[in-house]
Amino acid sequence: MQKMMQSIYINRVKPFSMIRNLATHSIRKTPLLPPLSLYRKILRQHRELPTLQREMGDQYVKNEFKLHKDIDNPLHIVGFLTSWQDYLTMITHGNWKENALSRSTLEKMSDDQVVQLYELMKEAEKLYKNSTDDLDTETTEKGTTTTVEDAMKVGDSTKDSK
């Protein structure tokens, strides 16, 4: 009886303790990180990205965490943290370049999420086009040509030189 009362008291006082219990008892191999720790680790990991991707990624992460700061539903919080922790794992291991959105994931998204994803894609294309236009300007002055692959290598080499 005392353990049950303790459990009720803890869950009422600390809503994140309930989320932590849900997260560690799930199928996941690693427990979910607390929101602030996850946020900081993502921003730290973005330092490894090329400049344009880092800037866009940082802005997107900051906006998403601000928008979801006041969520009360534990299932939404767990889903949010799980998705961002999966993202952190993906960029940490460097397989973000090859990763594509699966059809099943796209079908699970709401209309608002699909619109947001589309806007993100357009913004990324615009940034990429601007960066390749800058490279084209530089290469035409030197009299050489640049392919898309070369442009990506240049972006990666600027990251390595820092």
From TrEMBL:
Name the predominant localization.
mitochondrion
Indicate where this protein resides in the cell.
Answer: Mitochondrion matrix
Sorted alphabetically, the keyword list is:
Chaperone, Mitochondrion, Transit peptide
Bias type Basic and acidic residues, positions: 150-162
| UniProt xrefs under Pfam families | Complex1_LYR_2
Q: Name one GO cellular component term.
A: mitochondrial intermembrane space
Classification via InterPro entries: SDHAF3/Sdh7
Q: Where is this region: Disordered?
A: 129-162
Is Chaperone tagged as a keyword?
Answer: yes
Leader sequence segment: none
GO biological process terms, semicolon-separated: carbon utilization; mitochondrial respiratory chain complex II assembly; regulation of gluconeogenesis; succinate metabolic process
Q: Which PANTHER family match?
A: DC11 ACN9 HOMOLOG, SUCCINATE DEHYDROGENASE ASSEMBLY FACTOR 3, MITOCHONDRIAL
Tell me, what does this protein do in biology? Plays an essential role in the assembly of succinate dehydrogenase (SDH), an enzyme complex (also referred to as respiratory complex II) that is a component of both the tricarboxylic acid (TCA) cycle and the mitochondrial electron transport chain, and which couples the oxidation of succinate to fumarate with the reduction of ubiquinone (coenzyme Q) to ubiquinol. Promotes maturation of the iron-sulfur protein subunit of the SDH catalytic dimer, protecting it from the deleterious effects of oxidants. May act together with SDHAF1.
Q: Which family does it belong to?
A: Belongs to the complex I LYR family. SDHAF3 subfamily.
Please describe the quaternary structure of this protein: Interacts with the iron-sulfur protein subunit within the SDH catalytic dimer.
The name this protein goes by in its record: Succinate dehydrogenase assembly factor 3
Please report the organism this UniProt entry assigns to the protein: Naumovozyma dairenensis (strain ATCC 10597 / BCRC 20456 / CBS 421 / NBRC 0211 / NRRL Y-12639)
